[in-house]
UniProtKB/TrEMBL annotation:
Domain of life where this protein originates: Bacteria
Function: NAD-dependent lysine deacetylase and desuccinylase that specifically removes acetyl and succinyl groups on target proteins. Modulates the activities of several proteins which are inactive in their acylated form.
Organism from which the protein derives: Vreelandella aquamarina
Descriptive protein name: NAD-dependent protein deacylase
Signal peptide span: none
Cited CDD domains: SIRT5_Af1_CobB
Top-level EC class: transferase
GO MF, one example: protein-malonyllysine demalonylase activity
Keyword presence, DNA-binding: no
Compartments (UniProt record): Cytoplasm
Its EC number(s): 2.3.1.286
Domain Deacetylase sirtuin-type: 1-231
Keyword Cytoplasm: yes
A Pfam cross-reference name: SIR2
């Protein structure tokens, strides 16, 4: 290739679900017996931090057992071919990184890290195990999951908007485009930047001007990547 097209990929829970990670909204999801207010809000944390820690420890174990699927691997392969690939994900797992993607921005945090409950700058990797009540940061405050809870600001949102504005192509994968402010990212692309949504319900979910590709991430992403690698560009047929 004479140039390096810049693909920005915005991924949601649908891409991770194909690796066996239960989603937030699914009726059989891990959240089913855990009201959001109890385990994913600052209020829930204040009321019962031990319950919140136990919930995220359970999720962390599930994510460590999961493996990247064909969609994760295809995006990494495209990057290895010389394309510029930036991933903006709503997911808190590390499946993009384990597949080989090197430029991943986690809008909602990373479950395999802990952070201080008084200073968000103090983050600690969790290569194994979880977080227990009584484990503290360098400032002596209880450690909490490094995730963005409902009602909290999304600190990397401006950086994500900047990435989207630089895209030659925006590919949206496996998200209902229902969680704000992440869903508004599509408004930051240039008016002539092509955009596609891969999801089994893409026809119903795609905003005007967004190409709907009605299939799973595991089928749709590798097919599109194969085409782009063959062509050497990000053009659609």
């Amino acid at each position: 290739m004479t140039s390096a097209p810049h693909l920005v990929v915005f991924t949601g829970s649908g891409i991770s679900a194909e690796s066996g990670i239960q989603t937030f909204r699914a009726s059989d999801g891990l959240w089913e017996d855990h009201p959001v207010e109890e385990v994913a809000t600052p209020q829930g944390w204040r009321q019962d931090p031990e319950r919140v820690l136990a919930f995220y420890n359970q999720r962390r174990d599930q994510i460590r057992r999961a493996k990247p699927n064909a969609a994760h691997k295809a995006l990494a392969a495209l990057e290895q071919d010389g394309f510029r690939v930036s991933v903006v994900t709503q997911n808190i797992d590390d499946l993009h990184e384990r597949a080989g993607s090197r430029h991943v921005l986690h809008l909602h945090g990373e479950i395999l890290k802990a952070r201080s409950s008084v200073d968000a700058r103090l983050r600690y990797p969790l290569p194994k195990g979880g977080i227990r009540l009584g484990e503290v940061c360098d400032k002596g405050s209880q450690l909490r999951p490094d995730v963005v809870w409902f009602g909290e600001a999304v600190p990397l949102f401006e950086e994500a908007c900047e990435l989207v504005s630089q895209a030659d192509f925006l590919l949206v994968v496996g998200t209902s485009l229902a969680v704000m402010p992440a869903a508004s990212l599509l408004t930051y692309i240039d008016y002539d930047t092509p955009c596609a949504l891969i999801d089994p319900d893409a026809d119903a979910l795609s905003p005007p001007g967004v190409l709907a590709i009605n299939t799973t991430a595991g089928e749709g992403v590798p097919a599109l990547v194969h085409q782009w690698r063959k062509q050497g560009n990000l053009l659609l047929p």
